[in-house]
Amino acid sequence: MHIVVCIKQVPDSAQIRVHPVTNTIMRQGVPSIVNPYDLFSLEEALRLRDRLGGAVTVVTMGPPSAVESLRKCLTYGADRAVLLTDRFFAGSDTLATSYALSKAIEKIGAAFCAPDIVFAGKQTIDGDTAQVGPGIARRLGLVQLTYIQKVVACDTAAGTLTVERRAEGGTQTLATRLPCLVTMLEGVNEIRRGTIQDALRAARAEIVTWSAAEAGIEDVTRCGLRGSPTVVKRVFAPPPRAEKAATVDVSGRPAADADALLDAVVARRPALATDLATLIAGY
Amino acid sequence: MKKELPEHFKAYRHVWVFVELERGHVHPVSWELIGEGRKLADKLGVELAGVVMGAPGAGTLEAAAEAFAYGADLVYLVEHETLGDYRNEPYAKALTDLVGTHKPEILLLGATTLGRDLAGAVATTLATGLTADCTELAVDADKSLAATRPTFGGSLLCTIYTLNFRPQMATVRPRVMAMPERREGRTGRVVPFTPDLEESAILTKLLSFMPDRTSAKNNLAHADVVVAGGLGLQSAENLQLVRRLAGAMGAEFGCSRPLVQKGWMPADRQIGQTGKTIRPKLYIAAGISGAIQHRVGVDGADTIVAINTDANAPIMAFAHLAIVTDAIRLLPALAEAVTRRFSPHSRDRIAG
Ligand SMILES: Cc1cc2nc3c(=O)[nH]c(=O)nc-3n(C[C@H](O)[C@H](O)[C@H](O)COP(=O)(O)OP(=O)(O)OC[C@H]3O[C@@H](n4cnc5c(N)ncnc54)[C@H](O)[C@@H]3O)c2cc1C
Ligand SMILES: Cc1cc2nc3c(=O)[nH]c(=O)nc-3n(C[C@H](O)[C@H](O)[C@H](O)COP(=O)(O)OP(=O)(O)OC[C@H]3O[C@@H](n4cnc5c(N)ncnc54)[C@H](O)[C@@H]3O)c2cc1C
Description:
The complex is a heterodimer of chains A (283) and B (352). Helices cover 31% and strands 28% of the residues of chain A. Chain A is of the alpha/beta class. Chain A folds into two domains: 2-222, Rossmann fold, CATH 3.40.50; 243-283, no CATH class. Chain A has helices at 36-52, 67-76, 94-111, 132-140, 196-204, 254-268, 271-281, and strands at residues 2-6, 9-11, 17-18, 25-26, 32-34, 55-61, 80-84, 117-121, 143-155, 160-167, 170-177, 180-184, 208-210, 230-236, 246-247. Chain A is built from seven helices and 15 strands. Chain B has helices at residues 28-44, 60-70, 88-102, 113-126, 239-249, 257-261, 292-298, 327-342, 344-351, and strands at residues 15-19, 21-22, 25-26, 48-54, 74-79, 106-110, 130-134, 136-139, 145-150, 157-162, 168-172, 189-193, 205-211, 225-229, 252-255, 282-286, 303-307, 321-323. Chain B is built from nine helices and 18 strands. In chain B, the strands form four sheets. A seven-stranded parallel beta sheet of chain B has the order 7-11-6-1-4-5-12, sandwiched between helices. Chain B has two domains: 7-201, HUPs (Rossmann fold); 216-351, Rossmann fold, CATH 3.40.50. With 352 residues, chain B is α/β, with parallel strands linked by helices. In chain B, helix 3 crosses helix 4 and helix 5 (239-249) runs parallel beside helix 8. Chains A and B meet through helix 3, helix 4, strand 9, strand 10 and strand 11 of A and helix 3, helix 4, strand 7, strand 10 and strand 13 of B. The structure holds flavin-adenine dinucleotide (2 copies).
């Protein structure tokens, strides 16, 4: 069984600071991490490989520094890592990103072994669109199974996969044919720590690195900015509300301040007094 | 950048909203989008269509009638046996074919699990742009769709266009847009569309569906009063103060994202871009700085109260009322004051 897992290197949002005056993000010194959502998919892939045999290949499209995230995935136990890197990819939106990744996955299939399952994360913590997984599935003509909370059964001989999917208002149990694309829900498993052997292997492992041409992309106009139908035209700070926040005077005595705050709330919206009385009575 | 729109896209006209019908029930985000789509269509001087898909008779006509009541001019009615429960393959194929046949210039979907799954597939097949999780939609002077969404990290928004491709697609999360007024008796045209689908050609089969127990879900998204805590509360124990105040007010409680990341609150209590969007009458934010990702989740609240030690915190730019003080000391006093003033029992006591 061959499983490909798409991972993205993202800035660690927990360490991002916003410049207090200019409102812009201060990226300097912010460490990069593997997109946290991708680790649930990687863990599921590793479990399937442990159970059914085969190999897990991780792939990312990103700058040369993204090898760090690929190596991290090898320390968890992935077998092989592929970096797709080229200046033609700069500025890709989700359509261009899924195009490049689908080409790379086809090439991985040709160079190593065609994948039975392609995993992607549910979404990223930076772009946060959840569009790349479905995009890759469409381009490769694979069935897409998003928001999966459990892989119930995988029968490689019969070529079938059964999963539980989080839907609006309930859980679907779905059966489909391999190959397919799966995105896992967050919190459904926990990434393993990996063994010492994995860590040693990861440190030395050769990362397969492909340019656009090496990945089999002939038409680079479908990549990067040129291949992206969406155009970011304007970045701006949200306007403050016309009315500035009215500040409640503080005395330093909490009981008095609480009363002053409630007075101000009711003065602004008298109906809230009735609403609160009703809510409290019904509680 | 802005080029002349390619000739073959010029026939693309009108605004469409995908009406998310599942198990006889329409997701409210669809009506919110009908309200928003109505404004865009009026500005463009075009028609607003709802797209209703489902198995024949499974609430499709009712959904169409509702779409008219909320403001649609017409409904594309796509009925087929394979469209009973949501599955990506038949839905994506039917919607893609419908777009190819009737050519909308704008296509809006809810950013739900269904909408995101469907929109990503359809936009890729159509090779057009899709802007995710928009918080504002507008049309420019040159009639292109300006879709605004928060950007990563900073307190900034960005406006994204799909200039040279059609349709221009966008998703919007539930409760970001206001619910439009429903007018009984409004009608419109029903345009049937027969999709080219066959069960035997669909690879994915639904084995079972297990509905959520409703009691397991909290009512945060629909509560009239919400109290939330942020990192300013400094410890998991102090979050009890938020819960207690919410309890005293008959309100729901919530939190900012870092508290979920620290494991201090469950994920379904997170408010903001990657959590829940709320539209309460009263929102009290204690020890929350008001980052853009939090703000977009609460902008629809009628009255926002900030309790913060920092008079210059970003939340001061969008709160209606602010009190610059230590939330850890104020919250218990506030719970007491609320009970004293608004609880019927205490009023009885005073009266008696
Ligand atoms: C603030 C901001 C807003 C944006 N808004 C939009 C928008 O509305 N529409 C749009 O089309 N583009 C948008 N983009 C561009 C988009 O982020 C990029 O196309 C990006 O390359 C992938 O999208 P994503 O991060 O949203 O991934 P998602 O679609 O959320 O990612 C889902 C999964 O796909 C896989 N994946 C994603 N990227 C890669 C990669 N480079 N390598 C390997 N696997 C990957 C991962 O498994 C990931 O978990 C935006 C970018 C930013 C920074
Ligand atoms: C892609 C992405 C998505 C995100 N999605 C969300 C989301 O959905 N929801 C969300 O909330 N965040 C989200 N965030 C995180 C967001 O950017 C902020 O980091 C977060 O909202 C900050 O949380 P906070 O206000 O609790 O903490 P902080 O920013 O640390 O603010 C703490 C505040 O408490 C005040 N304070 C300190 N002590 C006291 C005291 N004793 N009494 C009163 N006030 C005090 C401080 O002055 C400060 O203003 C997201 C970030 C990213 C990158």
